[in-house]
Amino acid sequence: MSNNNHLLTIDEARKILRVGKNVMYSKISEGIIPHIKIGKQIRIPEEQLFKWINQ
Fold this sequence. Notes:
Blueprint: E1 7-8, H1 10-17, H2 21-29, E2 36-38, E3 41-45, H3 46-53
Antiparallel strand pairs: 1-3, 2-3
């Protein structure tokens, strides 16, 4: 029931992954978690997050 174009905030994604903010930002900066930047904001494409989880 997810929209393929839905972009998650950091908080939404970390709640799905059940990790803290520090872990989330660390994994993003290491390029481990797929993400895009919109200006200064970071968004995680929902479809890519779930593909990454299922790898």
